[in-house]
Amino acid sequence: MDKDDDIQQAINSIALIRQVIRQADADTPDAKLSGITLDANLLVQLGIFFIVLALSLLELFTAGSMTETISSGSKNPELILVGIGLMGFIVAGLVLVLYFVIWRAARHNGEELGSYIRRNFRYMYQLSLVSDLLMKFICLALLILAGKALWIAPVLLAFTADYLFQARLFTLPSKAAVSLGVLCLGLGTYQFFVGSSALLVPLLTFSIVAGLSAGRLVLRYRSQMLAAH
After folding, report:
1. What is the Cβ-side half-sphere exposure of residue 65, based on CA atoms within 13 angstroms?
2. pTM of the predicted model as reported, rounded to 2 decimal places
3. For residue 9, what pLDDT band results from cuts at 50, 70 and 90?
């Protein structure tokens, strides 16, 4: 009887573990992507993708004008300030667009903005994303002011890896996010040791990651639309 009781207890423990795992999976942000929340996430991801893709194409078709501007900034202090100001303008514009999209989604759902962000966009709760972007902006600005143009591209790749490892911004499976993060770190290390300051590499890398994340949401959106019909 004791042996049978032990077996039954083991079975009950396994069932409990499975229940906890199912609850944890249901509590993930990805599991909550539906309806207007999915629409908002999709708009955010597509917005980020197209903005960074536009910067990548600008860098590509102008023969590395942004890289050249940053690299030659040490010879022209005014050019440095213009570059930092432009970078700050892009970051501020991106944040405003993100919050506007989420505000519209919260209003559509009839929820208060703070609670909607806390429930569906945890990486933006309590201005965590704004603080994170501000710290990254300050880091890049200091590198530009210090004349360390060769460090900027590797640091941008490290920032992309950071977002992947922390599951911020992008909605990718954990294994894929970690693999892409390691790849970003590898590319950054390679650029640093070969002395390449080309911004096209981190911009294209970020565009690809954002495109994969947005593409995953597009597939999810289509599947929900088909299920609804």
Report:
1. 9
2. 0.77
3. low
Name the residue among 123, 138, 126, 137 with its Cα closest to residue 170: 123
Select from 115, 123, 192 the least CA-distant residue to 153: 192
Structural tokens at position 60: 């590509």
User: Whose structure tokens read 């559509």?
Assistant: 108
Tokens 């954002």 sit at which residue? 210
The pLDDT of residue 57 is above 90: yes
Cβ-contact 94, 51 below 8 angstroms = yes
> How many angstroms separate the first and last alpha carbons of the chain?
54
Tokens read off for 184: 């970003």
Q: Which residues contact 4 (CB under 8 A, 6 or more apart)?
A: none
Structure tokens at 8: 């039954």
Which ranges of the chain would DSSP assign to H, the alpha helix? 2-26, 35-61, 65-71, 77-109, 113-120, 128-145, 149-165, 174-194, 200-228
Phi-psi region of 110 (alpha: psi -120 to 50; beta: other; left: phi over 0): left
